[in-house]
Amino acid sequence: MDFDIVIPQLGGFGRYHKRLAVAACLPNLLLAFSFFSDVFLSLTPGHHCRPDPQLLPLALRNLSGAPLLNYSLPLQSGGGGEEGRAPPPAAWSRCRLHRYPLAGGAGQPLPNGTVACTRGWQFEARGGGGLHNNIVSQWNLVCKNFWKIPLERVSYKIGWTVGYLTLGSVTDRLGRRSTFILSLVVSIIQHIGVSVSVNFVMFVVFHMFSGVALAGLFLSLYIARLEMCDPPHRLMITMFAGSFTVGGELLLPGLVELCMDWRILQGVVTAPFILLLLYWCIPALFPESPRWLLATRQIVKCKQILRDIAAGNGVNMDDELYTQCNVLNEMDSMFGEYTQSRLYTLCDMVTTGVIWKNILILAFTTFIGSGIQHCFSQSLIAYSPSFHLNYFVTAGAEGVALLFLYFTVNKFGRRGILLLSTIITGMSSLLLLALVQYLHQGLRLTLSILGLFSAYAVVTLSIFFASEVIPTVVRGAGLGLIMATGCVGKATSPMMDLHNNHGFFLLHVVFASFAVLSVLCIMLLPESKRKSLPESLKDGEKQRRPPLFLSQNKDRAPLLHSKHQRYYNPENYSKLVTATKKMLAQNVPFQSQVPVNESGTEETKESTS
Asked: Which of 524, 4, 483 is nearest to 234 (CA)?
């Protein structure tokens, strides 16, 4: 049973659906705070060794301030200040100290070598993107311990990957609402564990498992939003939720400036998740997806939720005047009173042909779009080392990509815009690779921003496209697999940092080649613009690539191809149906009264009206 046919009988995309859409978009703001806060928690601030007077000759041990730093810290290669002035802090070595002979000779003492830091490090104030103290300065994760930062970032991405893979299948078994509540409770526990971590190992473990729970939250919310919408509103609600994510990313630096300490920041990020427990206490804020209940034949629960939705939209589904066309009676006639529910697993999806092909292609494009973002970000860092400038440019590119998708995807189709975005990503990457030595610095910056914009459009549209071609019964597992490949692509950034960006050029070449290859793969995808979501595996197998050349010999009914056909709007039709039912209910036909004689029997003559 096609749920998109049921929605108009529930009052269309009415006030109840709009309220549910807003309630399902608000948590994206909190998810953005939690996801992007990792950037600030693990940002390495400027630092250098604390001076050790024991390494200085006796004549210099009473120095302090800038003179002490000048004698204690060696300069990096190519670094140095003007003659007679102290060098800038960035010119000092971050991990070494000068060592002097104990008996200083006549004249200015000269060092006879360098040693590793002996008394820890001195970090720049507010060097962690606005934080006075983060995990790097908390546990001295610099110099010989620098490898722990990329390890923490990779483990966090692994947590999100595992969460998408495991909890994606859980959404198909337990439902969207149950997975959301489970992930929310686990997420709160893990966030509290991160806040009270006493060492680096404890932080990594809790942070990784918080990524698992947050992935379940994001995935269940994404699917629930999509499944409550009719075809004309799916893209709008998805882009609206994406704007909350970008808004949270833009607001986070201000929140960091207010908190200043990483534990306070983590506590502020955790507190709003506790408020989301209202979704557990008030099921009307986040009901189970009736589309999923109907697809898995859980009819009793589905009927109850449909009645609530219809009542919220001002439609009475139990009106006896419309028993013949009532969707509840239609469900009874199709499924019967006692219907055995049917749940599906990842194994059922793997056995399919067309569904599996679509998933693999869209997972490939998601992996490319996520991984190649690091290549463009490195070009931004080379242009300007300012952390906040690069951060806001990246967030701005994501916001522009959402606007681009909102105004183009419904007009030109999913496949066409995905193909265009992939071509732009590949061309920007190839131009940066081939002409980096000959391009003006401003043009390189433009290509990097354009590449970030198109790569984010590829990722966002690939996930949205996949949600429209994967059937409802396995949508959680399929989308979880695609989002997991996106996290694997994002993990390439900290892996490059772990190797000090050795092999970065080769990585850029690989992703650029993959982007060119994906152009051919996208041509094998179907088009899902304004089509009903597939419900069963059989419906999903029908999502095939349209023919390149449509036949011109088809019989065409003139009325179906009139000039007014393009103005058809399913939402207006649903409103017309609802208004007509209300009007007919108010104008009850006159019922003739049959006169009754004294004996209580009806007279046989016919009454006239």
From this structure: 4
